Amino acid sequence: MLRIHFTHADLARTRIATAPDPLWEIASSLHRLQSRRGRWAYAGWYRTARTQLRENGLERALRDVLLPLYPRAAYFPDFLTPPDAIGDLRAGLDSILAAPPGRVQKELSLLGRATATPPWTGHLVRGDVRQEFVAVLRAYHAAVIAPYEERAQARIEAERARRCRSLLDGGVEGMLAGLGPMLRWRSPVLEVAYPKQVEDRDLYLNGRGLTLVPSYFNWGEPVAFADPRLPPVLWYSLLHEPSRPSEPQPEHESLVALLGRARAVALRVAATGATTGELARAAGVSASSASRHATVLRDAGLLTTVRTGPSVLHTLTPAGAALLRASTE
Q1: In this predicted structure, what is the pLDDT of residue 244?
Q2: 138-149 pLDDT, tens digit each
Q3: Contact of 23 with 80, CB cutoff 8 Å
Q4: Strand partners, 215
């Protein structure tokens, strides 16, 4: 277990990332390729990723370069997921290139104690070898992560909307208390479930605050940096729906009869906040159709819509929430 200790200053400086962390998504997607845990939630991505890796000639790089550095184990090097990569792949890759050789060597030594690594990894202290490694990361991201960026962004916007409601209802402590079964708030400590093979440890924020980063490809336990001196960041899993989220749930059959399948699905998805793109993907319709369905639901007083930057976010009104709740009951 990881115990994160907050002060009042830390609570004031805690925030949720506005965008995915592309380097962390690379790391966690590589873990998905090494494990069957949660495979049902990534079935479509898994098939597509395997095809894209083969067609882009990246299978050997995956096997010989990436998987040895990102093992699904108790540890992989912190310098591979720098904190300034959130929403900015280029900045993250530049940070990997700029990591001091001494730090790279130290973290690779820790990796070598946790799992067997090929001899070439020791050469990552050299700038030219790291340049080649970064090129592999960029190619992997373009092949299997970039096509899912819009989907991941939509899920993060919905997650932020849900946490904002918790924040309005119960303050920062209320938001922390609702983060899910892997995180438990016991003021002033956030207890984080960690893999059993990892020793319990304490992280004292000491006024630095905490950045919470929802992750599309992370599954299971949240993850923080191993080095407590680094900026405090906690990556945690978004809740995923089954491979076919467009299928109405049995308890909502009365809602389907009343509204039609697409609008019933849209209402259900909007329960946690959703963009028009996310409504479209959930209902299996075009973005223009989803926008029309949202307009009908909004005109009926069931949805409210607010603009957040270039996109809009749909959430339930009290009437919409009551209708959804009644259909479930």
Answers
A1: 41
A2: 999 999 999 988
A3: yes
A4: 237
Q: Retrieve residue 226's tokens.
A: 């191993």
Q: Is the pLDDT of residue 248 over 60?
A: no
Work out the burial of residue 100: count CB atoms within 10 Å of its CB; fewer than 13 is exposed, 13-18 middle, 19 or more buried. Answer: exposed
Pair 5, 38: CB distance under 8 Å: no
41-91 pLDDT, tens digit each: 888 899 999 999 999 999 999 999 999 999 987 788 999 999 888 889 999
Neighbours of 168 (CB within 10 A): 10
Phi/psi-derived region of residue 284, left when phi > 0, alpha when psi is between -120 and 50, beta in every other case: left
**Cα–Cα distance measured from residue 196 to residue 1, given in angstroms and rounded to the nearest whole number:** 8
Three-class SS of the chain: CEEEECCHHHHHCCEECCCCCHHHHHHHHHHHHHCCCCHHHHHHHHHHHHHHHHHCCCHHHHHHHHHHHCCCCCCCCHHHCCHHHCCCHHHHHHHHHHCCHHHHHHHHHHHHHHCCCCHHHHHHHCHHHHHHHHHHHHHHHHHHHHHHHHHHHHHHHHHHHHHHHHHHHHHHHHHHHCCCCCEEEECCEEEECCCCCCCCEEEECCCCCCEEEEECCCCCCCEECCCCCCCCEEEEECCCCCCCCCCCCHHHHHHHHHHCHHHHHHHHHHHHCEEHHHHHHHHCCCHHHHHHHHHHHHHCCCEEEEEECCEEEEEECHHHHHHHHHHHC
C-alpha span between 125 and 79 (Å, rounded): 12
Tell me how long the chain is.
Answer: 329
Please, are residues 227 and 78 in contact by the beta-carbon 8 Å criterion? yes
CA-based end-to-end distance of the chain: 37
8 A C-beta contact, residue 4 and residue 186: no
Cis bond before residue 188 (omega within 30° of 0): yes
CA–CA distance from 49 to each of 24, 33, 55, 281 (Å)?
Answer: 17, 9, 10, 19
Tokens read off for 165: 């409601």
